[in-house]
Each structure stands twice: as C-alpha cells, then as structure tokens.
Amino acid sequence: SLTAGVVAVQGDVEEHAAAIERAAQAHDREVTVREIRDSGLVPDCDLLAMPGGESTTISRLLHSEGIAAEIREHVAAGKPLLATCAGLIVASSDAGDDRVDELGLIDVSVERNAFGRQRDSFEAPLAVDGLADDEPYPAVFIRAPAIDDVGNGNAEVLAAWDGRPVAVTQGSVVGTAFHPELTPDSRIHGLAFFENADAAVPRVERGQ
Ligand code: GLN
C-alpha cells in the first residue's frame, strides 16, 4: 500500500484524506493516509497534500516543526505534492506577504485573497488541462489566491479563471487556488498523484 501524507498543522485535513482515498480507488491503488503534524513522517510518504487554511499560520508551523525541509526533500526526490489554496501560497516562490516563508516549490508569484470581498467564496466550472476527461471541474474557491506571474516559465498553467491562472504544475507538484478536496470529483487528486508523468509514485495495486 502507498503511504499518503496530509500536512495537518492547520486547515482542511480530513477532506483531503477522503479525496486521496477516492482518487486511489478510482486508480485501483491502495493508500494509507497519515496526518503530518510533526517532523519525521514525511520521509515515509509516497505522496503529500498540503491543504488550504491560513497560509501565514501554515508556513510558520511548517518551519518551526521542521516539516518544511522535509517537504522540500520530498519534492526534490520527485515525489508528488498537491498544494491547494493556502498550500499553493506556501508552495509558491513569492506569496507577496512577508509573513509567509515560501517553500519555493513552484516558481510562481501569487496574490492572496485575489478575487475580492464580494466573491470570497464561489464555485466555477473550470477547464483543467490533463484531467481524465473533458468535463469541467467544479472548482470551489474560498478566499482564494490567484497566480500573478509564472515568471521564468518552469511552471505550466493548467487552468485559468477570470483570465488569471488558478492551477499550475511544475515537475511533481500540482498547485490549485481552489479546493479540490471539497467536491466529490477526485480528478485533481488523481492527476496530481496517479497520472502525473513527472512524479515518481511506486506502482502498488490494491490488495498487495
Ligand atoms: N486566504 C487564505 C490565505 O491567504 C487562503 C484561503 C484558503 O486556503 N481557503 O492564507
């Protein structure tokens, strides 16, 4: 069985765990999901999710708990990371906010809370490159960031909303401004973990 980690220092953790299980089932894989609150667990994970929440808090705790360096090593080893909403902000190279100590895993700059107060929370049918079929993805945005600049072109835009990138990939990392764990549709988790050609996930079938 694969070991999946959900970074659980703060944010919507259980929903990610359930989405990982749904995606694994759809791809005929078996996963055991562990919540990551301390250092020492990430090295055993085949794949990682970094949830939404409050990016300044998540960033501070990841560094103080010694988890930040382990996530960097995970990605350096080519293992998949799905970073959503606040997770994307933390994974970026520029959060536009001094209180966020970015991990620099995706070479993009982001703007926090980019879609305005009137639209704190909304759902949008998104066309996302690389999904298993052409059905729009029901993307839930909650005080979501937008991607401002894909800078040096290491990151590839997978989806845009209102003319602004909201999903990107770079190597084994997928980042979304929205919350793919909040809808039953597990295609984003499937893309990040089981269909990303750049990510090294061991092939472990169910029942092995
Ligand atoms: N607005 C939050 C932040 O900037 C992110 C919101 C979320 O993760 N839902 O940290």
TrEMBL record:
Q: Which residues does UniProt mark as catalytic?
A: C85 (nucleophile), H179 (charge relay system), E181 (charge relay system)
Q: Which SUPFAM superfamilies match?
A: Class I glutamine amidotransferase-like
* GO BP terms: L-glutamine catabolic process; pyridoxal phosphate biosynthetic process; pyridoxine metabolic process
Which chemical reaction does it catalyze?
Answer: aldehydo-D-ribose 5-phosphate + D-glyceraldehyde 3-phosphate + L-glutamine = pyridoxal 5'-phosphate + L-glutamate + phosphate + 3 H2O + H(+); L-glutamine + H2O = L-glutamate + NH4(+)
In its keyword annotation, does this UniProt entry include Hydrolase?
yes
The pathway entry for this protein reads as: Cofactor biosynthesis; pyridoxal 5'-phosphate biosynthesis
Question: Which EC number(s) does UniProt give?
Answer: 4.3.3.6, 3.5.1.2
Where, if anywhere, are coiled coils annotated?
none
Record key words, sorted: Glutamine amidotransferase, Hydrolase, Lyase, Pyridoxal phosphate, Transferase
Question: What does the entry list as the binding residues for L-glutamine?
Answer: G53, E54, S55, R112, I142, R143
Q: Which PROSITE patterns match?
A: GATASE_TYPE_1, PDXT_SNO_2
- Please name the Pfam families in this protein's record: SNO
Can you name one GO molecular function term for this protein? glutaminase activity
Q: How does it assemble?
A: In the presence of PdxS, forms a dodecamer of heterodimers. Only shows activity in the heterodimer.
* Protein family: Belongs to the glutaminase PdxT/SNO family.
Reported function: Catalyzes the hydrolysis of glutamine to glutamate and ammonia as part of the biosynthesis of pyridoxal 5'-phosphate. The resulting ammonia molecule is channeled to the active site of PdxS.
The protein's name in its UniProt record = Pyridoxal 5'-phosphate synthase subunit PdxT
Record organism: Natronorubrum tibetense GA33
Q: Mind giving the lineage of the organism this protein is from?
A: Archaea, Methanobacteriati, Methanobacteriota, Stenosarchaea group, Halobacteria
